[in-house]
Model the fold of this input.
Amino acid sequence: MRRVAVLLVVVMAVAGFVAFTASASGHADQKAAPYVTQIPAGYRDWTLVSVAHEEGNLNSLGAVLGNDVAIKAYREKTLPYPDGTIIAALHYKNTPSAENDKVFGRDQSFVAGPPTNIQFMVKDSVKYAATGGWGFGHFSPDGKPADAAFMSPCFPCHEKVKNTDLVFTHYAP
Ligand code: HEC
Done:
């Protein structure tokens, strides 16, 4: 009986320690991640906000999508965007389409080629207070998040449009 009691105390102590370290490290993780390191679930099914084309080195085609909170805020022109807003920018290589050009009879068609990256802006005014309430995220097509150095220019540039709560893309009707 005594042995059982001792064993019970040991088991409880171990369980307590595990719970303590788990919550401590969970807390530390949250503090250590000033940007988004996990792709938000379901983003590919979100609603279109607008499209964009970048020339220069990027030569990309982009589709900007918003989750339900984002789309509601966009349509009702709510500023600042409420917590829970997520905006996604899906980028592709801007690629001439020989297939389409053949039908047109001349070179004029450009379509989404291979994906180049996916970017996110996640609104959480507490968690991302240091970057205007937005968590920035950048992922390669295979889902790998960018490192801290890569992420450092996101906020300073987006901060230039304070009047639209750091969001560049306008809603395309
Ligand atoms: C030099 C300025 C600049 C930097 C640096 C920058 N962006 Fe942007 N971003 C823009 C502009 C301009 C747009 C709108 C045009 C477009 O979509 O191409 C945009 C659009 C976006 C959008 C769509 C929502 C919106 O604001 O229009 C997201 C999401 C985004 N950027 C995320 C990021 C992330 C993540 C980083 C860092 C890895 C980053 N941006 C770095 C200028 C910048």
Remarks:
- The pocket of heme C is lined by residues 52, 54, 62, 64, 87, 89, 119-121, 136-138, 151, 153-154, 157-158, 167-169 (CB under 6 Å).
- Confidence is low (pLDDT under 50) at residues 8-30.
- The chain has two domains: 1-32, 35-164.
- The radius of gyration is 23 Å.
